[in-house]
């Protein structure tokens, strides 16, 4: 049985042969809206995929730039309203996970990634953008930036010198993990996505981060994420810690099973 996440150190791989450390800041003394106050049973891969989001219209590559308020994830407002409070996931985060999973159905149809997998990662990484008391707004951005500790070679931490001139993490000496899904800058440079059509690929925006994380996982799995072996392969390249992977799996499965108990509007 597992308690809610404690913001562990996380590892996000650039390639199967090169793993870089990312992190969430140490747990605050209190956290607004914990993911859940109940213990979760240990799940077995793959996690329950949950009630699927309705079909969405994906942004074409040549679409004009949108304002944050016009994000295409808003198509999932009704679906997210049915699930947000019972699952204790912000509406914008649910919309981001659902839209990313629908997008990847088109771009990586063999992957079959579910929104619950992305939600499990979001839960462990940052309580869906609420780490340290932050609040996720309706456009998918935390009220305060979620930035990890410097990757400076301290005990238990890999050393990663600055790779982005501080553009993403505000640190010109060391890299730091950033955003609701805690990308390190070097990893973001490879997997960056603009999922909401605002013209900016931003790891601090959960819309962009969810699609980038899903794309990364699908690429790492090399096939169907609902196959247990491929699920674990992808998650272990995202993070080398088996305990981390199990925590993600437990949350993902919990969200999926719980969603099936609810009257979900499409």
From TrEMBL:
Signal peptide from the UniProt entry: 1-25
Residues forming coiled coils: none
Gene3D superfamilies: 1.10.530.10
Keyword hit for Signal: yes
Keyword Electron transport: no
Polar residues bias locations: 30-41
Domain of life: Bacteria
Positions with biased composition (Pro residues): 44-55
SUPFAM superfamilies, sorted: Lysozyme-like
Protein name in UniProt: Lytic murein transglycosylase
Native source organism of the sequence: Saccharopolyspora taberi
Source organism phylogeny: Bacteria, Bacillati, Actinomycetota, Actinomycetes, Pseudonocardiales
């Amino acid at each position: 049985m597992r308690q809610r996440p404690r913001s562990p150190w996380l590892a996000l791989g650039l390639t199967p042969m090169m793993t870089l450390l990312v992190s969430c800041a140490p747990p605050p003394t209190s956290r607004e809206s914990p993911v859940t106050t109940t213990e979760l049973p240990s799940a077995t891969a793959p996690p329950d995929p949950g009630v699927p989001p309705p079909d969405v219209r994906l942004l074409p590559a040549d679409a004009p730039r949108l304002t944050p308020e016009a994000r295409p994830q808003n198509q999932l407002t009704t679906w997210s309203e049915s699930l947000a409070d019972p699952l204790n996931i912000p509406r914008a985060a649910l919309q981001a996970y659902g839209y990313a999973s629908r997008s990847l159905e088109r771009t990586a149809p063999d992957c079959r990634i579910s929104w619950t997998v992305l939600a499990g990662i979001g839960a462990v990484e940052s309580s869906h953008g609420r780490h340290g008391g932050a609040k996720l707004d309706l456009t998918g951005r935390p009220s305060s930036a979620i930035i990890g500790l410097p990757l400076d070679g301290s005990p238990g931490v890999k050393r990663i010198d600055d790779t982005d001139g501080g553009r993403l993490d505000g640190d010109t000496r060391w890299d730091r993990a950033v955003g609701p899904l805690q990308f390190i800058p070097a990893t973001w440079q490879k997997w960056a996505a603009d999922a909401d059509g605002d013209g900016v690929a931003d790891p601090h925006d959960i819309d962009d981060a969810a699609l980038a994380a899903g794309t990364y996982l699908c690429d790492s799995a090399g096939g169907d994420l609902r196959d247990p072996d491929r699920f674990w392969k992808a998650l272990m390249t995202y993070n080398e810690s088996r305990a981390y992977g199990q925590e993600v799996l437990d949350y993902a499965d919990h969200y999926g099973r719980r969603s099936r108990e609810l009257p979900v509007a499409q």
